Amino acid sequence: MKRKLFALLLTVAMVTGLVGCGTSGSTTPATTEATTGSATETSAETTAAPEKTYKVAMILDSSISDGGWGAACYNAMVAAAEESGFETQYTDGLATADFATSIRSYCDLGIDLIFAPGNQYTDAVKEVAADYPNVYFALLNGTVETDNIVSILPDATQIGYMAGALAGLMSKTNAIGFIGGMELDTTKAKLANYEAAAKVINPNIQVFSAYAGSFSDSAKGKEIADSMVTMNDVDVMFGDASAVDSGAREALANYENRYDIGQPADLVALQDSTVLIGSVVTDNATMIKLCMEDVKNGTYGNKTVYGNLENGSLSAQYLEIVEQIKAGTFIK
Q1: pLDDT tens column, 172-190
Q2: Is residue 266 helix, strand or coil?
Q3: CATH number of the domain where residue 77 is located
Q4: Could you tell me if 86 and 140 lie in one domain?
Q5: 264 preceded by cis ω (within 30°)?
């Protein structure tokens, strides 16, 4: 068993290469006041202005307690804010028609940075950002770069590779599944590279995929997963659909030897689930923190902040074991 685990983990480690702030103040200058027969010099006084309180707010169409994407993005914002000295606010459960209205409300409240965690918010962000040039926007999975919009873009290719490699190694039925929330470019890229990596590991594997048309419909996720298991004998799944993925895991728990790969947080550590075998972890907190630093430094805008293996913003929870094996600390 130990040899099998070592071989599995070592293969996963190799497959990626195979497939592919301060306080502001003002100083009153010294002045000389003329008097009869004498001159009195008034000492310079330095008056420290109150330190600015920076604020960040997140809008969300799903829930911050969905056990998936929404929760991970909210936790990332909070973690980055704690390190950067920002106050946080959020609004979740929004309908698409309410995105722009909610963003405008935060702009009117004097929020410094609006965090929009998904490509689906792009149109609303662009619309409002044009009217509020002094408010900054961080658009996760976005492709927009303006004076006050920065896109945060995890590497969809590497995410797909890592999940597909693990799925290919773990599948015993030669059938794996993928559920997307919406047909976004980033989601389609994850699916394509998930399939490519799985077939490098096992050329005979089949990949079944479906889109839920939602990020919040957990019942739809359960329905899709049930169908994939009963009709296609899928035994390993990976999703890019937030609460929909949670529903899929509920369905998989009703079967023997059926597994799921989590994202974007280390869901194995966060959830009491018998079906999770690993997670592809996106460190959104690191990328959001970079945006917060730019806000405080006055250097915001006109760029994309990338998250990948090279800069440490992307990792695989199961690859930590490979590093332990290398260091000789996995089994003593």
Answers
A1: 999 999 999 999 888 999 9
A2: coil
A3: 3.40.50.2300
A4: yes
A5: yes
The rounded distance, in Å, linking the Cα atoms of 286 and 72 is 13
H/E element holding 54? strand 54-59
Q: Are 103 and 124 in contact (CB under 8 A)?
A: yes
Beta strands in 110-255 (DSSP E): 113-116, 136-140, 149-154, 175-180, 206-211, 236-240
The C-alpha atoms of residue 270 and residue 111 are separated, in whole angstroms, by 30
Domain presence at residue 256: yes
- Tell which wins on pLDDT, 122 or 49: 122
Domain membership flag for residue 291? yes
Secondary structure element (H or E) that encloses residue 91, with its range: strand 86-91
CA contacts within 13 A on the Cβ side of 211: 11
Convert the pLDDT of each residue in 26-71 to its tens digit.
Answer: 332 333 333 334 444 444 445 666 789 999 999 999 899 887 788 8
CA–CA distance, 233 with 138 (Å, rounded to integer): 40
> Phi, psi (5° rounding) for residue 309?
-65, -35
Per the CB < 8 A criterion, the answer to whether 49 and 24 are in contact is: yes
**290 within domain boundaries:** yes
**Cα 49 from Cα 79, distance rounded (Å):** 27
Give the chain's domain count: 2
